[in-house]
Amino acid sequence: MAATLLGGLAFLPTGCGKREATAPGPESSAPAAVQTIGVSFETLQTEFWVAALKAFEDELARRHIKLLQAIADGDANRQIEQVRNFITRKVDGIVVVPKDAKTIIPVIKAANAARIPIVCFNRPPEKSDAQSVAVVADNFALTKETVAFLIGEAKKAGGRHKAMILIGDLGDINAIGRRDGFEAAVSEAPETIEVVARVPTEWNNEKAYAGVVNALQANPDINFIFTSSDLHLPSIVSALKNAGKYRKRGEPGHVLLGGFDGDATAYQMLKDGYLDATGVQDVYFEVEASVQAILDLRAGKPVPETLLDNGFVIHAANLEEKAPRMWGARVRK
Question: How confident is the model at residue 23 (pLDDT cuts 50, 70, 90)?
């Protein structure tokens, strides 16, 4: 299926292609025609979004492209107005972090009408006739891989483990993928893992803390915890400390602990020996791929509708090797 953007420039989606998380080479410089890209983020309330915005600033500066920045603060209507402002200012491309999959559709259609290529960063839009490129983490596969690693550690320790998962806001498709990845992994190891608590968080740390406290009170022998975002690690740590269960790897009573994102807290906890693994979203790949997609569309080159960030699982054994690509490690430094 092909749709036309930018007049004579063709947008040729080629299906959901997977690309490895590697940076584009130095030869992928910006065409002279691309002078300005507008970037609209839904929020800056987590370290991930702050790190991503900084990566866009650095990447566009490296390519000598001007950045127009806007933050919607969780307001879908504000995001629509921000994109309309970008269009009025005749930007050469737009990158948007959608508030959600549905409300972003009018934003995409406005960019289509103006013949400006648009990329949805880290959250895909709902299926429609609106034309965009989504650059997203493979939430399901990366979560499954991370949890499988934790299950491997559980098998080494021996015995059947009682598990808890912290589930994100299920209005966010990323949270759904991470929940489903967890469930897929544990379903393959019923002899090792028994899930006794599923804690809804809605990406809220107070709710996460209360849920973990309640789960530990109901099941004091929980010894396996996975959080759908490293955002909730401080809440988990507080709850484990209060329950007298916060122990390092190798210590008696250690609770196997894993997460998803790769933030600065996760990096420090890996170094200190309290976190067993986390699935890292490769922010730098996602940013580079987003910018390159706009350049390619402007040049009339075919671009897949979905560019997948495969990410990677980081743990004690590969920490030194993988840390340079972990965005949380760069933030911590």
Answer: very low
**What residues have CB less than 8 Å from 86, skipping those under 6 apart?**
38, 40, 68, 70, 94, 116
Domain spans of the chain, in order of start: 3-136+282-310, 139-280
Q: Evaluate whether 161 touches 256 at the Cβ level (below 8 Å).
A: yes
Q: Give backbone dihedrals phi and psi of 262, rounded to 5 degrees, phi first.
A: 95, 40
Kindly state the average pLDDT of the residues 94-111.
92
Locus of tokens 């320790």: 157
Alpha-carbon distance of 100 to 126, in angstroms, equals 9
Topology of domain 139-280, CATH: Rossmann fold (3.40.50)
DSSP 126: P
Distance CA 50, CA 40 (A): 12
Please state the pTM of the whole predicted model: 0.85
Can you name the residues that pair with 252 across neighbouring β-strands? Answer: none
Q: Which two tokens stand for residue 63?
A: 């390519």
Determine whether 210 is exposed, middle or buried from the number of CB atoms within 10 Å of its CB (0-12, 13-18, 19+): middle
User: Is pLDDT above 60 for 41?
Assistant: yes
Residue 136 tokens read as 């997203």
pLDDT digits (tens, 9 = 90+) for 68-93: 999 999 898 999 999 999 999 999 99
3.40.50.300, 2.40.30.170, 3.40.50.2300, 3.30.70.360: CATH of 3-136+282-310? 3.40.50.2300
